[in-house]
Amino acid sequence: MKKKLLNIAMAGLMAFSLAACGSGGEQNTETGDLLQQIQDKGTLTVAMEGTWAPWTYHDENDNLVGFDVEVAQKIAGKLGVEVTFVEGEWDGLFAGLDSGRYDMVINGVEITDERAEKYDFSEPYGYIRTALIVASDNEDIKTFEDLSGKTTTNSMASTYMTLAESYGATVTPVDSLDQTLDLVVAGRVDATLNAEVSFYDYMNVHPDAPVKVVALTDDASHVSIPIRKEEATAAFKAAVDQAIRELKESGELAEISIKYFGSDITKE
Q: Which residue from 136, 133, 154, 157 is spatially nearest to 208, judged by alpha carbons?
């Protein structure tokens, strides 16, 4: 069961209290600067799915773990604040970001032209290729072009859903990687698209799963953090970029990647 770890009402009340109470009890003027608000509050609010191993998922003790979880914790540490996670379905993550309920989304988000029109993106912190996955006995699909007229399954509004549709596939939306592969194995859809590293992680856990990768995208996608494109977020984005650069230079980012993926996806 997904845990909603953020009490929105209390967070809003805390933010109001911090804005309203200054030294001597006088009211401070709201600066509108997101970085300052986060640091005053002492909390960075990060949204993610919590169902996409090894990026963000629950371990055997139901603890939220994963590559993106630790990346978020490291970034929060660089900003001098704690991190609060909120879990939800893919499309809802961006709705919450748009409304200001979340400070950022960290969920293996790939930069696309369409997303870049709406959001500012941090420096990339990962690079991945997309895998085309089918049942082991499927000989009809060997390339992305073969998806025309076929059925696939992916998270609603995800990069993978958009890519499948661009090749002429009809997409059934679901919530998790496991669900997509279950549908492929059951023969209810012809294929699914997902991050190559996520597929290999799945196979480590399910070594006998009758699925295979038949094609990979030529170029690696850039994984980054979408941030609201506003004047008030400029300093916040600069601080996040600096945090990512420092984590790369120190080797911490690579260590987290190797821990969860078995390889370093932080270098292009």
A: 136
Ordered strands of the 43-48 beta sheet: 82-87, 43-48, 104-105
Model confidence at 245, pLDDT cuts 50, 70, 90, reads very high
Residue 106's SS3 state is coil
**CA-based torsion, 236, 242, 245, 247: positive or negative:** negative
Cα-based distances in Å from 96 to 100, 123, 157: 6, 22, 15
Indicate the CATH number for domain 8-126+223-261: 3.40.190.10
pTM: 0.73
- Among the residue ranges 10-24, 234-248, 253-267, the one predicted with the least confidence is 10-24
Could you give the residue range(s) of every CATH 3.40.190.10 domain in the chain?
Answer: 8-126+223-261, 130-218
* CA distances in angstroms from 55 to 9, 135, 142, 165, listed in the order given: 28, 24, 27, 24
Strands 82-87 and 130-135: unpaired
Phi/psi region, residue 66 (left: phi>0; alpha: psi -120 to 50; beta: rest), is: left
Which three-class secondary structure state does DSSP give residue 181?
Answer: helix
State yes or no: pLDDT of 263 exceeds 60.
yes
Q: Are 85 and 48 in contact (CB under 8 A)?
A: yes
CATH number of 130-218: 3.40.190.10
- The three-point CA angle 94-100-101 to 5° equals 80
**56 vs 104: CA distance, rounded Å:** 15
